[in-house]
Each structure stands twice: as structure tokens, then as C-alpha cells.
Fold this protein.
Amino acid sequence: MIKNNLLYILVIAIFFTGCEITPDEFEVKQGSADFSKTLFIGNSLTAGFRDGELYRSGQMESFPAIIGQQLVDAELMTHFTQPLMPDDQGFGGRRVLGYSANCNGDVGLAPVPTSAAANLAASSANIADQGPFQNLGVPGAMVQHLLFAGYGTSDGNAYFARFASDPTITILEEAMVQDPTFIVTWIGNNDVLGYATSGGANPAKPITDAATFAGALDLVVQTLSANGAKGVLCNIPDVAATPYFTTVPGYALVLNAAQATQLNAAYSNYNQGATAMGLDEMSFSAGPNPFVITDNSAEYAALGNIRQLKQGELVLLTVPQDSLTCYGMGSASPIPDKYVLTETELTAIDDAVTSFNSSVDQVAEAHNWAVVDMNGFFNMISETGLRIAGQDLSTTFVTGGLFGLDGIHLTGQGNAVVANKIIETINTSYGAKLPKAIVNEYTGVIFP
């Protein structure tokens, strides 16, 4: 069995220091918007989901909580409420940084399940009597779920069921009974994210049809603005640019000369067939090599549906690291399709995000709302990073500070950056002057 000298996620704590900063003094200006009843609608990103779970301290640093506090401090809103979980365990999926050993015995810091037990009864208990809530973010929600009666039942969505005022009410209706004056909406990520996180391999998680997405989004914003409410729509970043998809390098099959020779011999029959079909052969040499992956397309059926990874294709964060390191996955046997995004799947994702964001622009224009360009914003961050008050922030997993331990959702600092981007758009679009948050006051990844 070939043992590959591959990536094992080891994390080194980086401690930042910086001077205390205070916001520039300026006179708050409301502009043409009314923020007295501001609501936030969306999915897990809006809810404050973090590190694989919705938990209380993460919710306290959600971007709605950050913006809400800015509005309260500016005396443009009297209070801000959200359906807080009872503790920091949620439904039990939270991950923390802890020490663990890989199959070679190497010990390092890596995301591990929290050792604290979840109180499922408390987390599941309905808390509608503590509402109404201004943060209506529901983990797992897609655009059409905002319109789905029954989404708050036990068979619907457990996160919505715990704060829905009636099991049959929709998320949109939950918003409208509050007669909102301003709405921040960030929805649509899950309409493509489920497909992406399953490696495009789960038929139960397809990309939402473009017409369905556009129609549902238009109905949502039309309803929300019916009584004259204004708002902003956040568009969808490139989901495949998050650490969940960019942390494991695709060319990390590191071999010595003997191992390369052994693999070339093992795949000689494959290469004969590939040559006859006009497809690329597998080739291995000393040093870094692309992984062997599963490709279930018809093109590779006669070759056992396997090939080497192509430049630009992605390996998911969930790929079993020990299987790569010690047990021949990615070399002697292919990485399963559910852990890889091929060029065909990435094209489908890119096309969907482009289409969805076009719909966001059209719907916003039709209803006189502003658009927060999260797509362009996160593209910029992934390319250049951010430097705020002497602290470098980036999309790098764990040490970048912006993304939590699930590789998709934001830390408190990441949410503060998002909150400030939304405030910036509101100020520009509505002639307002709202104070921004101090990013360094919020937490990044928490080290033990």
C-alpha cells in the first residue's frame, strides 16, 4: 500500500496585536429610508450559523446583530431581537479547534466535534412567545422556502420550527406581520450550495431552476415592499471560492520515484484504453501529482469512471484526510465523486450563480431596492485579502480569520466585514449615514 505524504490540516495560532480604534465622529443621517422596523431575511449566513452549527454566541455576532446594534446605538431603531439558541451547543454539530492525531501519529490543531453534549429538548423548544424576531435567517432555507407553508413544522425545518409563531406560517408571512420598514435580504446561496457541497453527486440536491429562483425572489421582494418598505438585496458569492472548496490542494499526491513507477505500471492498461479513446493518460512522477478521482460522466464509463484531477478542479474539505494520507485514496483508488467538483460541475455552479445574480439585479431594479455586491466583494477578498487596523484577514481556512471551522460560514469578524459592506451600500443608495462596526471588536477563529 502506498502511503502518500499529503496534506494534514495543522493549524498554527497567529496572535494579532493592534491599537484601539474608535469610529470617526459624525452626525448620523437617516436619509430616505426608515429603519425603525428593520428585518433581516435569509439562510444560515443571516442566522449566525458558524462552525457547523447554530449556537448562541455565534448568533450574537451575526451580521444582523451587528447592524441591528449599530441602528440601536444611532437611535434609528429601539431594539433588535433574534431567536437565540439556549446555549453554545445547538443541535450538536458545532466544531471547535482541538488537538488530534492523523494516521501517521502527527498531532496538530484541527476542527473537531465539541465535547459538550447538546440539549436537544431545549434547542428544539418553540420560543415564539419571545418574539417577534427581526432576524428571520433560517439555516438551510432556499428562496422558495420563504414561501413554503409548513416549513415551520417538525417535518419542515427544525431551525424555523423553534421560532415560528404558527407551524403553517411562512417565513415571508412571519416578516409581514411585523410591518417592516426596511429589509436586508440575503437568500439564494443554498440554491446552489447543496449541489456544490455534495460534489454534484446527490440527486436530492440539484441546483434550483433559474426560472423558479427568479419567480420566487420577485414574489418575495414584491410582497416585502408592498407597503412602501425599502431594502437591500445581497447577491450570491462564488460558493466554490470558500475554504470548504479551496483548502485541500488537488495536486497534493506527493510521490517518490519508486511510488511513481509503481503507479504508472498499475495504470498501464488504463492508459492503453485512454489512448485508444483519445483521452488523457494517467501519468505519475516524483514530486506533487494530481489525485486520481471518480468521474461518473459517460466519457469515462469504459475506463471505470476514473481519471486524474484536472487543473482548476476542486477537492472538498470533507475528503477523509487519513484515507488520502495512509490508505491509497487518490492514488491506488479514486477519490469518490462526492468529494470532488469537476470542471463540468464547476461550470454548472458558475452558470447558476451568474443567472441568480442577474435575477437579483432585475428584481432589485423592479422594486427600487439596492444591491449589495457580495460576489464582487468576496472575489476581491479572495484575491487580495483585507487589512483592518493592522490585522490581515483572508479567505484562508482557519488562519484567515473570516471563515469559521466548517469552511463556509463566517466568524464574528467575517460577519462584521459583511455588516460594514451592507451599511456602506445602504449609505450610498439611500443617502444615509450609518456608523460602521469596529471589526476587531468581534471574534475570529477561537484557539484553545
Residues 1-23 have pLDDT under 50 and may be disordered.
